[in-house]
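User: Can you help me understand a structure? I only have the sequence.
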Amino acid sequence: MIEQRYNIDLKETTKPGKILRIVLGIICLIATAWFLFTITGTAASIATAWIAVAFLFLFSFWLIASGLGVTDRYIKVGDDRIIIRRNFWEKPAAFTPATLEYIAFKPLVLEFRTAGENMILRLGTYYPGHSAAIMEAIENFCIKNSVKIIGLEPEDNNIES
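Assistant: Let's start by predicting it. Here is the structure, written out as tokens:
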């Protein structure tokens, strides 16, 4: 099985959208530099102007990072591991069959339990179109790797491992 990547952001990212965000970020950086040079030492150099310039500067970096995929939230399901990136400021969490005690399936929620931690992934609060595909891919991962499954109904032909 090839590693499948699912987007769990509120938005879909397409190549033109990424390019547009990068271009807009560069335009905002240029505008920031222009504002810096034009308001420095003038009567317009007041606190609110500097706050606006700082905001524009940070916003431009956010747009560029978003266009480059640094802020993406995703889940990757492969043959031997599951990688989850819930927040852009946290490093991705990786789960292997050896580290997982069980995975609990709840309505639009997945709970990953290891010996040291418990991670809850709420699918309904992110991009809801991928929820069924993500849950099915994780179910297949559990069955293939003999990871204990909790919360699936017996009539779904799923056997608790």
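Now, to help you interpret it: The CA atoms of residues 112 and 153 lie 18 Å apart. The mean pLDDT is 83. Let me know which part you'd like to focus on.
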